[in-house]
Amino acid sequence: MQLKQIFDGIYSDGRRIYTENSVKGKKVYGERLLSAKGKEFREWNPFRSKLGAGIKKGIKSPIKKGNNVLYLGAAEGTTISHISDIIGEKGVIVGIDISARVMHKLVELSKERKNLIPYLEDAGKVDETKKELQEVVFDFLFQDISQKNQTEIFLNNAKTFLKKGNPAMISIKARSISQKSAKQILNEEKNKLGKEFFVKHAVFLDPFQKEHLLVLCEKK
Ligand SMILES: C[S@@+](CC[C@H](N)C(=O)[O-])C[C@H]1O[C@@H](n2cnc3c(N)ncnc32)[C@H](O)[C@@H]1O
Questions:
Q1: Which protein residue's CA is at the shortest distance from atom 11 of ligand 1?
Q2: What does the pLDDT look like over 165-215, one tens digit per residue?
Q3: Which domain holds residue 94?
Q4: What is the tens place of the pLDDT at every residue in 14-63?
């Protein structure tokens, strides 16, 4: 099978997308493994990952090898494991999650993936996370948190951790915000991003995720 690199560390066979597995032989969430040219690749399931869905829907990944990434809403590590593959051993990804239950799985994952740092905290408490992370310069911010104030959390983190010109992405879940029409909510939230960001590209994630918008922005 022919795999073509479509973005840094992301490959496609024309239908499905993959990252090169940095922990050979190990799956993270039951994904398919594939060997090609002496390397091993992990299929990236867009039904399980908003970033994977966004790439399938045409959003360009700004993530580069060696990047430092701040990931809010890391959960059990599905998407973060693919970013860990992309950034490689010279990069670092800090995965914040509020839930002790999912953090357990993320800690296990970080034992194999040395570039992954799990961090149990409320991503909304920027004054707390700032104390721990003030030394790190982040190249990219990603957020996937289904909370009513998800956009405000993203804006506060961007203000604190991201430099002018750097990229960020937020997955916005309409139903966590209100019961108004999804299109209306998602447009209102996208407009709020204008406070800190230039909005570069936004895609609805259907049919992979219902009533979600993934927005790629650049810090003003
Ligand atoms: C939809 S899941 C994320 C899935 C994950 N991004 C992936 O693709 O593998 C949302 C996560 O956000 C976490 N979360 C919700 N509110 C949070 C907050 N204020 N701070 C940090 N994490 C939060 C939840 O515990 C949950 O694990």
A1: 73
A2: 999 999 998 888 888 888 888 888 888 999 889 999 999 999 999 989 999
A3: 45-219
A4: 999 999 999 999 999 999 999 998 999 999 999 999 999 999 999 999 99
Instruction: Round to whole Å and give the CA distance between 184 and 189.
Output: 9
Query: Which of 45, 132, 143, 144 for a ligand 1 pocket mutation test, highest count of atoms within 8 Å of Cβ?
Result: 144
- The structural domain count of the chain equals 1
Residue 37 lies in a domain: no
pTM over the 0.85 mark: yes
Residue 27 domain flag: no
Kindly state whether residue 1 falls inside one of the protein's structural domains.
Answer: no
Question: Does a structural domain hold residue 36?
Answer: no
Q: Which atom of ligand 1 is nearest to the CA of 77?
A: 9
CATH number at 83 reads 3.40.50.150
